[in-house]
Amino acid sequence: MKSEPNTPGQEVPVSAPVMVDLRLSVNRDSYPITVDTRETLLDTLRERLDLTGAKKGCDHGQCGACTVLVDGRRMKACLALTVTLDDREITTVEGLADGDTPHPLQAAFIENDAFQCGYCTPGQLCSAVGMLAEASAGWPSSVTADVTGEPRLDDEEIRERMSGNLCRCGAYVNIVAAIGQVAR
Amino acid sequence: MRPFDYRRAEDARSAVAALDERPDAMYLGGGTNLVDLMRLGVASPEMLVDVTRISSSAIEESADGGLLIGAGVRNSDLACDPLVRLRHPMLAESVLAGASGQIRNMATVGGNLLQRTRCSYFQDISKPCNKRQPGSGCPAREGDHRNLAIIGHSSDCVATHPSDMAVALAALGAIVHVEGRRGSRTVPMPGLHRLPGDEPDRDTVLEAGDLITAVEVPALSFATRSHYRKVRDRASFAFAVVSVAAALDVADGVVRDCRIALGGVAHVPWRAEIAEEALRGSAATATEFTRAADLELAQARPLRDNGFKVPLARNVLVRTLIDLTEAS
Ligand SMILES: Cc1cc2nc3c(=O)[nH]c(=O)nc-3n(C[C@H](O)[C@H](O)[C@H](O)COP(=O)(O)OP(=O)(O)OC[C@H]3O[C@@H](n4cnc5c(N)ncnc54)[C@H](O)[C@@H]3O)c2cc1C
Ligand code: SF4
Ligand code: FES
Ligand code: FES
What is the pTM of this model? Predict the structure, then answer.
């Protein structure tokens, strides 16, 4: 989506794309990049930076396949405009492992057989990383009996907190087990 | 999606000035509703003014024990705030009952209040819709309206307001702080949202260019005993079919005071003033709770396919009040 250079004498199209230069920080690498203001983080990652881990499932915020971490918080990359994120630190599934050592959640997903086709997995992993941080910060959830108290991360809590990530293959039982193994 | 300019506002004044200069512009919060509507072609601003960085992302305690919540506070930060959880549990619960963890991390308080209806015709630009295109008609009235309004709808629009948080704020009588072209003012809830009447394109009483800067929750001592209960088509991550936010003050088996609002039933978060009035001074029993709920719901005019919401709303309200009584 690059804007066409305007030939002299040609009328400027009313709706020419608006391009903005910015610096995007992803998995601790800094990318100088020119983006169309309409571009979502998901499209920038996948189409421009060749980081295809985050997946496009619905493009409407409904499935969680595009989940990434922004300053450590899980978010949906399909609803985030790249132009809003120039001073943020973005982590995708490609950035979770420590060199050749998989992230504990990645290892637990493998051990527990927590996927079939794998399409939702990058989103599940990033979401689980963010969710565990939220739980250890003491955030309650919709199934926490008393919102004033400290939540305990049992299976019901994990299911509720991961409800923004759908799995078309129905690997939920093992996803909950994998996350539970890391949480406890 | 139509191309648009992007500007990041540093403070409320410059955000308002930007929209004054460019009437085709819109404010951008977390973008979880607006970006989606732009992609669907329902909204097509020529400029977005990002208001998430203006200095209003804090929750402050006011002198009288109320809370002043900046419009830029993310939904998850509101729900996990210790004072909100302690003093207004139904507010924390209502936020936690909405959307998903990822969306709550992005969504702002201002954007949540001003999110648009989830009526499927509104979101589909190939269909007529009076809210999206005034005068084009309302296919929901005869079409798919199972999840739409039972109270306060008009021949022009039968949509519901989708926000969970707004239901708790309406029950709490929150005060919305607004900065506009002619200076700042406050709008008390539930008066922010309006019934559709013959202008369903107007969701709220706000005027073009108005910026929400904060939401003030007045002190309400008995709100420590309050609860938000939501019924939806699946266990999580779905909009309300019907919901109830209620705070109850019971002493010696008698209701001294209460605050009640219903969600999923109207174009606005519906403050149940008739039920509140009926309950004050009455016995805190299931019989009285049912009587009050029935009095409130006597105004209901369900559509062909959503009559089930009337007994559902009654039962959820009665159950919530019983639970609050037993917890005392
Ligand atoms: C899949 C999905 C499921 C969801 N489920 C639920 C649910 O169960 N319950 C629920 O309550 N919500 C639900 N939501 C909706 C969600 O809560 C809203 O999208 C969100 O709260 C909007 O906040 P935002 O900051 O992202 O707003 P934006 O999308 O940025 O803005 C929304 C509107 O508010 C305007 N605006 C933003 N900030 C201001 C301001 N400060 N002053 C004036 N105008 C402003 C914008 O111009 C726009 O018109 C869901 C959303 C999705 C995508
Ligand atoms: S109910 Fe309202 S939003 Fe839905 S189609 Fe009718 S006019 Fe449009
Ligand atoms: S692709 Fe973002 S939530 Fe589905
Ligand atoms: S493993 Fe196939 S969608 Fe989840």
Answer: 0.96
